[in-house]
Amino acid sequence: MQNEVLVRTVSALILGVLVLALTWIGGVPFRFLAVTIMLLLFYEWFRIVEKKHLSATDRLVGGVTMLATAVAIMITMPLIALACCTAGAIILAVLRRIEGHDLYAPLGLLYAGFFGIAFTALRGSEPTGWMAIIIVFAVIWATDVFAFFGGRSIGGPKLAPRISPKKTWSGFLSGLAGGVVCGIVAGWILGAPEIRLLAFLCGALSIVGQIGDLFESGLKRHFDVKDSSDLIPGHGGVMDRVDSLVFAVVAAYLLSITWTGLDLTRIG
């Protein structure tokens, strides 16, 4: 247990510092970070679902779609990136249905692609884009940490035993509380004046993030896979590390473009 926690902590600290540094820098380095995560999510998703039939054509369509989406993100053309990702997913879905196969593969294109697009778009909303990302990071990272330790130390009734047998309601509530508190602290430091609305948003992002965690757990359970890969010591794969962040980032970006006047760092 102690060794596991140490490995997880060291890995998380190293990755956390790197991600924060690139987030602060922004521009091309941050877009490269977003594209790298997106491509790794795509790779791990296809690695998980490969137990179902994936033809060479399926892999080709998926690879070309992600490459085109990545290029569009790097040259800051989010609408083109969205069009590439969506079109590729539709084409792959049609091919899969013609062959009589499931739609997990095209869903993976949307999962990875929408994250990459939302992540870069949210950060690119200057001059406060990096602040919005920091608040999202604070909520999700705190949720993960408090849920992990709260669930292990308190225990109790299971949250969703058929999806993730180890997750408990105590972990869920601990994560929610920790995410809201840390999100508020981050927002206060960054100058958000309306704390009550910020608390609501942090709570919503924490819940959405935990749904993302359960979603990935359900996917792995369905395909009888323990980890999405073994790229990160103590954590498994990139998807295992950012499953909550994927849902939270997309949710935060959708809120930012649908809620008129919303600014996670200037709420009021």
UniProtKB/TrEMBL annotation:
* Alphabetized GO MF terms: phosphatidate cytidylyltransferase activity
Q: PANTHER family given for it? A: PHOSPHATIDATE CYTIDYLYLTRANSFERASE (PTHR46382)
Question: GO CC terms on record?
Answer: plasma membrane
State the superkingdom: Bacteria
What name has this protein been given in UniProt? Phosphatidate cytidylyltransferase
Q: How does it sit in the membrane?
A: Multi-pass membrane protein
Q: What is the lineage of its organism?
A: Bacteria, Pseudomonadati, Pseudomonadota, Alphaproteobacteria, Hyphomicrobiales
Any one biological process term the GO annotation gives: CDP-diacylglycerol biosynthetic process
Q: What is its EC number?
A: 2.7.7.41
| Annotated compartments | Cell membrane
Family classification: Belongs to the CDS family.
One Pfam annotation reads CTP_transf_1
Name the chemical reaction catalysed here.
a 1,2-diacyl-sn-glycero-3-phosphate + CTP + H(+) = a CDP-1,2-diacyl-sn-glycerol + diphosphate
TM segment ranges: 12-43, 63-91, 103-122, 128-149, 169-191, 245-262
Q: Which residues form a coiled coil?
A: none
Alphabetic keyword roster: Cell membrane, Lipid biosynthesis, Lipid metabolism, Membrane, Nucleotidyltransferase, Phospholipid biosynthesis, Phospholipid metabolism, Transferase, Transmembrane, Transmembrane helix
Its UniProt pathway annotation is: Lipid metabolism; Phospholipid metabolism; CDP-diacylglycerol biosynthesis; CDP-diacylglycerol from sn-glycerol 3-phosphate: step 3/3
Q: What is its main location?
A: membrane
